[in-house]
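HUMAN:
Could you generate one sequence with tokenized structure?
ASSISTANT:
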Amino acid sequence: MNDAPATRDYRGTVFLPQTSFPMKGDLPKREPGWLERWERIGLWDRLRTQSAGREKFVLHDGPPYANGALHIGHALNKILKDVINRAAQMSGKDADYIPGWDCHGLPIEWKVEEEYRDPKGKHGGTGKDAVPVLEFRAECRSYAAHWLDVQREEFKRLGVAGDWAGRYATMDFASEAAIAAEIGKFLMNGSLYRGLRPVMWSPVEKTALAEAEVEYHDHKSAILYTGFPILKAAREDLVGAEAVIWTTTPWTIPANRALAYGAEIDYALLTVDGVEEGALPRLGQRFIVAEALIGAFAKEVGLAAFSVSRVFKGTELAGAVAAHPLRAWDKADGGYQFDVPLLEGNFVTTEAGTGLVHMAPAHGEDDFHLTRAHGIAVPECVADDGTYTVQAPGFVGIHVFKAHEPVWAALESTSHLAGKGFITHSYPHSWRSKKPVIFRATPQWFIAMDDGNQIRAKALQAIADTHFVPDQGRNRIGSMVAARPDWCISRQRAWGVPIAVFVEKKSGEVLRDQTVLDRIDAAFRAEGADAWYKPGAAARFLGNDRNPDDYEQVMDIVDVWFESGSTHAFVLRPRGLPVPADLYLEGSDQHRGWFHSSLLESIGSQGFAPFKAILTHGFVLDETGRKMSKSLGNVTAPQEVTKQYGADILRLWVMNSDVSDDLRIGKNILGQQAELYRRIRNTLRWLLGNLAGFEESEKLPVSELPELERWVLHRLSELDARMRKAVADYDWNGVYPEIHAFCATDLSAFYFDIRKDSLYCDAADSPRRRAARTVLDALHRCLSAWLAPVMPFTAEEAWLARFPSEDDSVHLHGFPEIPAGWRNEALAAKWDKLRDIRRAVTGVLEKARGAGEIGSSLQAAPVLHLPRDQMGLLSAAGWAELCITSGMVLSDAPPPDSAHFADGQPGVAARFAPATGNKCERCWRVLPEVGRSAAHPGLCLRCEAVVGAA
């Protein structure tokens, strides 16, 4: 009986990958360890020392608000900043990043007030007003400090690198002093003034609001049509007729002092001839309405029939005088006996309403300017809490948002109510309390936009000179600056930096004295802004030459947007950082917020913008595109993501998204990012495994590398150029998806697949294997560095898995310098062609595998049909290597119809043919030569030589 020769085990002769880099990232467990290591080796300080003398890169941090745990929008913002900072650092800059916090303002004050109001709270229900201001401010400071510390640790957990020990906060004493000093600059250059003007006012929060603090939501508003009887007019037939107005703010009727008309508008004098059932107009009543709006007016107020006696131009209303529609109201006690003049207004249109506009000077911008121009006084009909004052006779104490019913009733009693109802429209709300706001004229502090300092004109020029990513941000902020009114910077609250100025009581003039400002600055630096509220502050700051009784000490605080807008003044220069900063980066809503206030503040105080470039990102929505809210249960919290997936997955999500648009996140999307991460990690693991034992002496010069390796180097040069362009212009959209595609498509599914045979089975010193490992070395160095900004934890692990060290870090290294000689466009074009042709072969192999003819592509030796001019692209052996088959037959004969054709490649097709011979027990290729060796009958000649030489 003849026994068959035993099969030998050649596994020990194959160079299988070896690495300590695990397949599973286990990021939630491992990432905190890397943070501890970076802290232990003093990574941030070492980067600063290492970067000394390099060109500075300054991404100035827009301060988040210190009043709660981080949400996903915070994570998006800080991760994007961190990627840009790390990339700038690795590209050779000194990227010194100073994170900061916004600590003053109403949201914190509101929370502390709630604690004081709570009967079960630590203050036992003591109202805020009963608390000394310094004690209240101390509570606010403590609240902000707590959340600042919480947020700092949460940002660090996301892998955000920065000078966390040297962070800035607007409530730091030095910051408060600098903010007050910035206000002083506007005082001294004349742009700061106090004036009476309607501003957005929150009755809930009892303070003025800036445009940036207002958001628009749908709101159900009461409406009314009311007539103002004409007492005097150029034409007699107008006397007794009623000039009709329409308003969505019935509560402003008691504050009315005039009517506005358009000079070129055609008005109609109409008589009511019939009314619908329930309509308020009376038969015979005469109305003045814009001719173009008669139809809409008649429908709205229920006119069944009417006649027009004549049509006339608005100029005919010049000099006309009307009575207030509440003049005869018995409950007003004669409070509305004043005349109501008709004034020409260039803002009056026929787009809606009646073509006549009622003017309440205290409650509208156009109203205020038109009436003031005609010497009409501004009544104070509404108090700071939104209730009527004694200047609104008959309505005292009623809240304006509950006034429509009483106003309707009063007008109906005087027979001047022509129509009433409700509409739903976009209406301004406080973005903090989410409650509707009103326009209310109060004395406020303003910064002039168009005085001698020309802040508006200079700001518009600065916008034109700024680099915007995306560029449409330029038009957005530009249109806002062009149309905005003077900047109202005063707030009637307690927690913030005071507008530290004095007003002489006798003259009403604001005191402009640099010596006084210097005293304030010194005190604020030593004691903080609390110094303003301490007993004897006025005498202390005014000095011995002035009597504090002669001056009003202003107690308004400054708008927090002014505070955050002036951060450049106390964050950059004091730390030796260049001004303007290279980049400001925030959400797109900051065109009307921080970008806007920073621009105006810097232009006004130093004459130029505080930034060279602005990058904006979108908002984060859930997977279906809905806004996140706790009530919908669709909130994705960054803390939960890092706990389940790890920070690198969250960071990868940011950089795989189009950040210029709104982003989406949720369970499925995070699962997809985890899968993308797995592919990148596997790429790194494969590289590390096949670089085991690699020595510099193995490297081959580029001139000795095969075309395939030189093509990979070309691809690296392309990606390097892509990275460096992103660093230069801050546009990172698509960069990391491109790197992932390179890992998945160019490497894993192509280059690695082809070179596995050589790396595993060639002799250790074979030129082909050395060439491959030369390129793998470049791939590892490039990918570790390029991935470091977005996946700092994984990149560090991949770097140290190859270069173990107690104190080294991938983050201490720069992006590799790619030699210009790696770029080879002609070679790239050729290999694009080869890959297109290869698809014909892989297609026919897939069919054969599906039909059960083969299991592995190495069991095949297909026929590849090529046009004659393409026969020299590669040898048959080269094509077999490229297609991972055991053989290949080239033919320039026309392919049969049964062949598998390559799309878009005329004359290119492949036919299946099995490989002939036996399977090599070491490399698994099927070759006729297998079995010829007496010593190693199960090996091919290549493998026999390797094993024999071992």
Observations:
- The chain has a mean pLDDT of 92.
- Residues 54-178+448-496+556-617 form a domain with the Rossmann fold fold (CATH 3.40.50.620).
- Residues 94 and 259 are 62 Å apart (CA to CA).
